[in-house]
Amino acid sequence: MTLRLSTAGIHQQGLSALLRQQSNVARAQLELTTQQKLINGADDPSGMANAKRLEHALSTLEQQDKDSALVEHRLRTQEQALTDVGTQLDRARQLTVQAGNGALSDADRASIAGELRQIKEAITAIGNRDDGTGNRLFAGSRDGVSPFVVDANGGVSYIGDDGRNQVEVAPGLRVGDTDPGSDLFLRIRTGDGLSRTTAGAGNTGSGVIGSGAVTNTATWAGRSLTVHFTAPDAYELRDDAGGVVASGPYVAGASINAAGIQMTLSGAPAAGDTFTIAKAPTQDVFATIDTLAAALDAPAITAAEKATRQNAIQAALGDISSAQDHFLSARSDTGTRLAALDDAKDGRGAYGLGLETMLSNLRDVDPTEAASRLALQSTALEAAQRTLIKVQQMSIFDLL
């Protein structure tokens, strides 16, 4: 059987071949220009879908990198703020020790009270610091408001909230943003952090607290225990229900040890005076300073008034020490979060490198292979063009 091809059919086959070769050359040129082999979804639907997923993962990493940088800046700003608070409290403690000097005059103590109030103002300003972008550090999730507001009487109130943003800084890892001011400046344990010893507000003697502490937490069990002076030289230790758990003679400077607590008193208490040791309550740092300043401003002429002032100074020393420990602990926690951000940065780098390698294998062109293919396809295109020209020139009349 003889196969016959029409002239038009031969021309059409040649033209189709020529167009295919032109398409191949154009494709190779486009791959070399864009350096990508996944240009259209139809090229490799599965590969294109995987490439889009990898691109999304890399975009997420890029956003996490920006979020991490912002959180790191805010945490470093918080760390500096807490350091500055610590410096102010160091000075407050020095002034408190100085105020306990019996040789000071009332004017000297008034001067110390004035400096303490300046310290309170400085700490308030620190509590209202922003991160340089207008957002407050310590307002919780209400970072657009100044969290600490001073009223006409000098009292400080908090108008932020207890929120703290958890920011994703790496796949599966979230790090807390700056702490709310309520945690840092308001909820501070007083005394030694576990217990606090106070003198009764109605005391009429000159008894002064030397120290008070819990020696056995199991025996103490968090109870409020009060030393009641039944006479100037005798006491009863009563629990919060009024039951007597211990009693004995009072000797100035001697320790009272009973029910898991130890208390040392000096001076001359009067019958009816009380001294209580109880679970340490929380108190804001502003009230701690205000209470001390008010005690230093109050006149102290009688022995009882001087004892009241001395007891306030002793209580303030413990409260300020606890506040210093509180802010040191907050600084330590801030440092832990900063270390987590450093680790997250390394993790993002390694993970991102792996994603980029996978994406490159899917999408990127091997320049050497693509250039070689372009050269080969260009040669094939040229051959197709020459062949088509030859076919077009053929005619049966050439054989006559």
UniProtKB/TrEMBL annotation:
It is found in: Bacterial flagellum; Secreted. It comes from the Bacteria. Residues 7-141 form the Flagellin N-terminal domain. The keyword Secreted applies. Its main location: other. The keyword Ribonucleoprotein does not apply. Keywords: Bacterial flagellum, Cell projection, Cilium, Flagellum, Secreted. PANTHER family: FLAGELLAR HOOK-ASSOCIATED PROTEIN 3, FLAGELLIN. Belongs to the bacterial flagellin family. This is Flagellar hook-associated protein FlgL. The gene is flgL.
